[in-house]
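Session log. Operator J.P. requested a structure for one protein chain; no other inputs attached. Running the standard single-chain path with token output.
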Amino acid sequence: MPEISRFFGIIIAMFYDDHHPPHFHARYGEYKVAINIEDFSVLDGSLPPRALGLVTEWAALHKDELMQNWEAANKKESLRSIEPLK
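Structure written below.
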């Protein structure tokens, strides 16, 4: 699972050729979550509220880049790193 960003102990990644809807994965300690790129809803898993808020804030800032990576992942192309939340 290629890592595309990392901030505040949170790792953001995408799988190649993953199932729909377009989404990304976030890990924070023992927590894991899959988040829909379109509306930032949680598809599976959970994160502590503060970490989920940071991930949602980051995703809103980088929605277009996330969709570009999703499309690249489905074509098995290289994914681009996305700037971390600061």
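Operator note: The two ends are 23 Å apart (CA to CA).
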